[in-house]
Amino acid sequence: MDNTPPPTIRIRILVVDDEKDISDLLVRHLTFLGHDVVGVYDPVAAMRMVEEENIHVVISDIVMPGMDGLELLRRIKAYNGGIQVIMVTGYVTMHHILTAMRLGAETVFFKPLQDLDHLEKAVEHCIRRVEMWRSILRELGALGKASRGYGRI
Predict the structure, then answer these.
(1) Is 6 domain-assigned?
(2) Has residue 73 got a pLDDT over 50?
(3) Is the previous residue joined to 5 through a cis bond, with omega within 30 degrees of 0?
C-alpha cells in the first residue's frame, strides 16, 4: 500500500499524438480519472503550451510529422527538467527506446495501448515525482529564508 500523501496541487497533463483518436481517448480517460488534461495533435503546438502554460506531465507519441516526439522530449527537458514525460509509440525500435531513456523519459509504452492500467500507474508515479520535487524546492526555499542572516557579520 502506498502511503504517499495525495498531491497538494492540481497537476496538468498534456497529451501529444498526431493520431486524433489516440489523443482523444487518452484525454477522455485521464479526465474521467479526475486529472486536468489537455490534448494537442501537433508537437510544435505542444512545445508552445509547455512554454506558456503550467504543464507537469507530458504523454507524447514518438513518431509524428514535423518534430518527432524524441525532439519534443529533448526540448521539454532542456526547458524544464522537472516536467515528467511518458512516451508512446507504435514504431518499436531499440533506437527509439534507448534514446527516450537517455533523454529522460519516465517510461515508454507500445501501441496499441491494450491496458490503460499501466499508463495510469505511470501517470501517478510522475505525479508523485512532481510532488516530491516541489516539496524539496519548498524546503530549500524555507532554508534560504531562515539562513539569510547567517554569514553576515
Answers:
(1) no
(2) yes
(3) no
